[in-house]
Design brief:
alpha/beta, TIM Barrel, 5-stranded antiparallel beta sheet
């Protein structure tokens, strides 16, 4: 495989990789022909290869919610968007809170996913059930929601500490949020204080040796406090692009949890993007008719797996991020937080997963072209500069210039918990 690769120290280099069983067997600088390989794949002319993007927070639905999305459509959307591995959330139907449901979810992913995959499990009733779930290949940690805070017990925390498993937090205190709000005012009903209030719990958990990740951070106050107490963090493109004004104008298309914030909060978070550890999609698809319900009744969530990385590249062209930041936020940060090693590098033994981008290609967001089942978006009509041209997963071309190719061969993520640490 020949690539123009963004190297963290050398800049953009031309490199020859020999890939075997999904891993880099041999690397040579420059473009050379290897005589003992079956085929040569030249990808140097289509764009710059980045270490493969990892989406550590996505909702693939499936199981009883397959009408909204399933493991095939959701991962096709991810591959279309340059994502080489996804981590699915547990709030499906039924929720992934038992070993039985977990095994059903992992079977569906093994059969249908076109990219590599992992799963966060939901909070089970017993610590022993949690221990059993965390021991299963493909499980990357525990995700808790506002409704879980009072059910999280010392025994659960001890299992997390003993196994060095990641605890992902939806940081909104249940006592400080309410739902019956009109479009444009949900940032008042679910205020920043609700996010910040949770971090006192997080500080205690970290003090007990638990690794904590605060997901979909909406503002700089939450970000800075989370970092100061040792948690890793991510945000999503919608908190960098959209505001409560968009919620007011677009209604349910821009309804999401936690809610969009006022423009000045969005602008401040953009300034502090360099302090984040990761970006994620929080891809949350719903049927179009559900997003057309009255604002107070419609479900929360924005589907963005098809375009999240492109939205990030657009920030590079706007001068807000560097291309190195894209690698840090979509590969290095998620890899470190999850404990996934050797992902998307080019040394011997590295996982040969890469996202190839064209920084100068322009397009207009058209949700009808999404591979997600959700064909509605608050980004419709947005002009974007920067596109994904190919997605390589373990050396196989999954997506290339508008077409899908090798869809079989995806694997469960292998997490090395003993080596993990908060960034």
């Amino acid at each position: 495989m020949w690539l123009r690769f963004l190297h963290p120290h050398l800049g953009i280099i031309e490199v020859t990789l020999v890939v075997e069983n999904g891993l880099v067997r041999e690397r040579r600088l420059g473009l050379t022909r290897i005589h003992d390989v079956d085929s040569h794949l030249d990808l140097t002319g289509i764009g710059i290869a980045l270490p493969g993007a990892i989406d550590m927070h996505t909702h693939l639905r499936g199981l009883n919610l397959s009408r909204k999305e399933d493991e095939r459509s959701g991962t096709l959307a991810a591959a279309h968007g340059g994502i080489t591995a996804v981590v699915d959330m547990p709030n499906t139907s039924p929720e992934v809170r038992t070993v039985t449901v977990l095994r059903e979810k992992l079977r569906a992913l093994a059969e249908k996913s076109v990219v590599d995959y992992g799963v966060f499990v939901g909070l089970p009733s017993s610590a022993e059930e949690l221990r059993r779930m965390l021991s299963i290949e493909g499980v990357v940690g525990l995700k808790i929601y506002p409704t879980d805070f009072r059910q999280l017990r010392n025994e659960h925390l001890e299992v997390l500490r003993e196994t060095s498993s990641l605890l992902m937090i939806h940081a909104e205190h249940p006592d400080l949020i309410r739902e019956r709000c009109s479009a444009g005012t949900r940032h008042v009903c679910r205020p920043i204080e609700a996010e910040v209030a949770v971090l006192s719990y997080v500080k205690q958990w970290i003090g007990r040796g638990v690794r904590v990740h605060v997901t979909h951070v909406t503002n700089s106050a939450t970000l800075m406090l989370a970092k100061s107490i040792g948690a890793s963090t991510d945000t999503c493109p919608h908190y960098l692009y959209l505001s409560s004004e968009d919620e007011s104008e677009l209604g349910c298309l821009a309804k999401v949890n936690p809610p969009l914030r006022p423009k000045n909060v969005v602008e401040d978070l953009l300034v502090n993007v360099k302090h984040l550890d990761a970006l994620s999609t929080d891809h949350a698809p719903h049927a179009p008719q559900e997003k057309c319900l009255d604002f107070e009744e419609c479900p929360s969530g924005i589907a963005s797996a098809d375009i999240a990385l492109q939205l990030t590249l657009n920030l590079v062209n706007r001068g807000i991020l560097l291309l190195d930041d894209v690698v840090r936020l979509w590969n290095e940060g998620p890899s470190r937080a999850l404990g996934v090693r050797g992902w998307g590098c080019i040394g011997e033994g590295c996982v040969a997963s890469y996202t190839i981008v064209n920084l100068k290609r322009k397009f207009v967001v058209d949700p009808s072209t999404f591979y997600s089942k959700c064909k509605v978006s608050p980004y419709a009509g947005l002009r974007v500069e920067g596109d994904v041209v190919a997605t390589i997963v373990r050396g196989r071309i999954v997506y290339l210039e508008g077409e899908f190719y090798e869809l079989k061969g995806s694997r469960a993520l292998s997490v090395k918990r003993d080596e993990q640490s908060n960034p």
